[in-house]
Here is the input.
Amino acid sequence: MVLSTLAANSQSDTLIQIKNVNNYILHYDSVISVRINANSEIDFFEIKGDGFHYDIRPNISVSNKISVNYRFISFGISFTPKFYPGNYDNELQGETKTFSLGLEIHPKHWIQELRYTKIKGFYLYNTHEQNPVWTSGKDPYIVFPDLSVQFFRGSTGYKFNPNFSLSALSSLTERQIRSAGSFIPILNYDYHKIDNKTGNSLQQTSQTTNNFSMVASLGYIYTLVLSSKFYTSFGVFPGGGFQYTHLLTHQNDENIETNYTDPVFRLAEKAAIGYNSKKFFTGAEISLSQASHNQNKSSVQTNATRAYFQIFLGYRFNAPSFIKSKTDLVKNNSFGIIKE
Here is the structure.
């Protein structure tokens, strides 16, 4: 049963519709929330084998993400300002350029997330292992200014427990008012392209890899409500799947193609703490994801790690009537998937 109430603290508050779902979830039905965060999102790669180890990372300290959220839809864009300490064009670690777009849709039990990210410019974090006389803070790292990575990431999941709100943690279009958790099976699919080709006509060798991976995870996440507005949350998502790789090596005037499929193992962890009131919300979150596979059934192991720490601040305001009417139209024509 869904009960609708109206807040009556002020004239503007009376327009904010709050739905109390089974005494576990408050849903902000008529407001748009805008959220900005400062995060340390990093994608880096490790390649290990007999006698070699490469730890390749982008030169990023802090990025920003702005997201706009309404009901079950969230859209965000990320960028990396240069005014943050550590985000300058570093002479020791080289320059990194990033861009990212994301879309999240959380209708009822279903979870759908899509994201595009492009990163250009990396450096060898463990340069000291390649050059014994290298001095940290003085000598430049080995850099790969033309190495670029493009990601197209997606995930589709299903939340079993209707009393648990994932939106209260991600888009914050809802608020968890009683502690609850849920098992969530998720199918993650990922396409990423790695290219180190430069515009230099003297370059003799380059490689381009097109990779597609699919990983199924079964995780559990729990939100502990500390008071009516404060919460903390923990989750873990182990999974396994496969990665298909098409490797194209450009060597002089010859192109060498290699195709192989490897099993992939992935572990993701999440933790968050925050404050969520009627108009304001803020908090901190950390997410880690580690995936590993052996290249083409060899002893060469590739580890892809994604680390994400953020602090965020957001505000809710009343949605224009035309947005509400358009969203209602989508709900009424979605074959019951998003209906209350």
In short: Residues 33-311 form a domain with the Lipocalin fold (CATH 2.40.128). Helices lie at 127-130, 321-332.
